[in-house]
# Entry
Amino acid sequence: MIVPFFFFGTVEAWAVLAAIATAVGLEMILFTRKGFVKLLGLGHIVPWVALLPWLVTRASSVGTDSIFGMWIAALLVANRASLVIDFVDVARYLLSESEPSYVLEEG
# Structure
């Protein structure tokens, strides 16, 4: 999450920071309402499914011959893998595994 700050002058870094902030916000809302459940993957799915297609177009125009281009490529690989896990988790939640493994205690 710190790497976008190294490329702060780029629109890609700002978009990634916005996606991170959106994901954190959604996950906080889901966690406080449902506890630690597989549905938390939804907080990551929403912003990244919207952002990844645009980042793919940016990666093809930037290339991988710079540190910035390598960061975009690594971001795409890591988030694609993470999205697969998130989609599986959300599907498992919807199918049957909806019990939280942790819930905030009230009080």
